[in-house]
Write a structure and sequence with these properties.
Layout lengths: L5 E3 L4 H6 L5 E6 L4 H17 L4 E6 L4 H6 L7 E6 L2 E7 L4 H9 L3
Parallel strand pairs: 1-3, 2-3
Antiparallel strand pairs: 2-4, 4-5
Length: 108
Amino acid sequence: VMSAAQDVTDQTFDSVVLKSSVPVLVDFWAPWCGPCKAMGPSVDKLATELGASIKVVKINTDESQDVAANLSITSIPTFMVFKGGKMVARQMGAMPYDKLKALVAAHL
């Protein structure tokens, strides 16, 4: 299944997220994390639903540890919204779809 969310890495984070002209939702996750996997469909749904006005990306914290360390990610899933290169929202843990959408909608 093709994910609607785009994968980013330590190497592409700056160009894709920080230099984005639209708000970006970043999903910090890892393959072994159950709650992260549970949030997958919601993240993809959001990407599909709001895809024209935002960018939705996922970063695997096992493979890209620099960004996670720089942003002090201590538990996953962690969701962050970036706008104009700055973090404007941060929420840890799994949540209902409506709450995830509200996190992003506040910054559109």
